[in-house]
Structure to design on (495 residues):
């Protein structure tokens, strides 16, 4: 009965409307090439300032879930992933659309996204409270090692591990601007009073992910080839035969996506590729993959949407984001005056239950809206690029300034926009920088507290089993890309 009472704020009509509009807006944002779920959440965080925590956070979660799903629309119709999470969907989605089954391809993507999302939402509701209970026993050394593990994971998955590490180190350096967490001494502010509390998080995120993308699009005079598939006709529901042959891929993708979402620092793109490869490896007809095979779509879309709910587990329970979008979602929590972590479950149970319920609700809205817009999906892709670009720039400036009414926040946004553009241009990881901005203060403060508690002896950290486990995992995650390269060379040499 207590949990049912906690659900009451979620059932207000304005909260339901906010979740519905957030999910629908996320689908549109994800469908447009160049606009990502990360950008959508970063842009719309300021809108949640005057909302209740349950309303504001669930609207952002709706944008997240809708944005990850929406990427499949342009992947299937244009052969251009709307979001990085949908890159693998191109392999079977576009060939299926070329066969005249664009409606069924989008329908399969929608159903798979729903199944993966619901599966992960159930895991979120059951696992997050248990993990938070364990986290209550963590000390400074455990949190330091966990933050370090999260940073090494995102660095190792950045493609170029050296650039990933450098991006993470730059993020840690930037996070040091402002007051020292232990002594309170100002550092690296260069005499600018506006930086006494460090860089404002939300303007930094808007610049890093929204404004930087606009700079990149302007540089390459962003154009799409137009909709190769201009009309979506025929049935939008997958056939019974397609569903039967996709059952294995659906469940495998849901499990893989959920597991990868729980691991700090990973993301939907990783989950979709791993799921696709596993589905092809386990299939009795692997030669059909890449030719418009329904299980290929099922594998990728169930996995990338399972990540959405699963990535909330480490964020809420451990204060460590599961991927870059949940890192941005931390800005929404901060605006509401909430600190993620195990104490949130004790102090704000209504918010936690509301987030659990809102995740389920957003997933159902994603299914409903996804099926409704399939016949009109090609029209979404015809939005004029210039109008879209100017609207995003306007939202960037309004969002960055509206929170604190501080001109310094505008300079912060522009500075991070230029930095994000340069990182894209030269192949550095924006995700690693973003997560380092969040985990840097957590890592520094807990390292110093742990050293103070242990008389400045780091060796004492190694006597704690959980700390040692995370440190070993951190070393392994950094070494794994090198080990994998070595094994690949040996296999190639043996052939």
């Amino acid at each position: 009965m207590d949990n049912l009472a906690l659900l009451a704020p979620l059932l207000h009509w304005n909260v339901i409307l906010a979740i519905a509009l957030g999910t629908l807006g996320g689908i549109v944002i994800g469908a447009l090439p160049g606009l990502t779920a990360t950008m959508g959440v970063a842009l719309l965080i300021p809108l949640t300032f005057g909302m209740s925590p349950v309303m504001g956070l669930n609207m952002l979660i709706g944008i997240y879930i809708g944005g990850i799903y929406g990427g499949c629309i342009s992947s299937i119709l244009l052969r251009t992933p709307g979001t990085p999470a949908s890159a693998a969907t191109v392999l079977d989605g576009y060939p299926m659309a070329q066969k005249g089954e664009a409606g069924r391809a989008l329908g399969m993507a929608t159903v798979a996204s729903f199944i993966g999302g619901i599966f992960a939402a159930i895991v979120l509701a059951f696992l997050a409270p248990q993990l938070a209970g364990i986290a209550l026993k963590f000390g400074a050394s455990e949190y330091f090692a966990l933050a370090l593990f999260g940073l090494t994971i995102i660095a190792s998955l950045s493609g170029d591990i050296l650039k990933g590490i450098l991006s993470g180190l730059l993020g840690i350096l930037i996070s040091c601007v402002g007051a020292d967490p232990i002594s309170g001494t100002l550092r690296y502010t260069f005499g600018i009073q506006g930086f006494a509390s460090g860089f404002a998080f939300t303007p930094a995120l808007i610049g890093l992910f929204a404004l930087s993308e606009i700079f990149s699009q302007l540089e390459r005079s962003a154009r799409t080839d137009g909709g190769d598939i201009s009309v979506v006709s025929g049935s939008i529901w997958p056939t019974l035969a397609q569903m039967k042959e996709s059952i294995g891929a659906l469940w495998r993708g849901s499990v893989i996506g959920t597991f990868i979402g729980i691991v700090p620092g990973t993301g939907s793109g990783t989950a979709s590729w791993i799921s696709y490869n596993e589905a092809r490896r386990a299939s009795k007809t692997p030669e059909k993959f890449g030719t418009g095979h329904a299980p290929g779509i099922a594998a990728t879309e169930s996995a990338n949407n399972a990540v959405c709910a699963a990535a909330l587990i480490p964020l809420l329970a451990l204060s460590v984001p599961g991927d870059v979008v949940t890192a941005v979602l931390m800005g929404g929590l901060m605006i509401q005056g909430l600190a993620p972590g195990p104490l949130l479950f004790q102090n704000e149970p209504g918010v936690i239950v509301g987030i659990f319920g809102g995740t389920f609700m957003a997933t159902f809205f994603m299914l409903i809206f996804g099926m409704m817009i399939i016949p009109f999906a090609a029209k979404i892709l015809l939005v004029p690029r210039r109008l879209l670009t100017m609207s995003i720039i306007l939202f960037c400036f309004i969002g960055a300034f509206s929170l604190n009414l501080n001109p310094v926040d505008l300079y912060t946004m522009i500075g991070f926009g230029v930095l994000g553009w340069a990182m894209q241009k030269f192949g550095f990881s924006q995700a690693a920088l973003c997560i380092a901005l969040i985990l840097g203060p957590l890592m520094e403060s807990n390292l110093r507290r742990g050293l103070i508690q242990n008389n400045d002896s780091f060796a004492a950290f190694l006597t704690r089993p959980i700390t040692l486990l995370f440190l070993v995992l951190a070393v392994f995650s950094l070494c794994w890309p090198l080990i994998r390269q070595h094994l690949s060379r040996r296999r190639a040499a043996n052939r």
Q: What stands out?
A: The longest strand covers residues 178-179. The chain is about 70% helix and 0% strand. Residues 90-135 form the longest helix (46 residues).
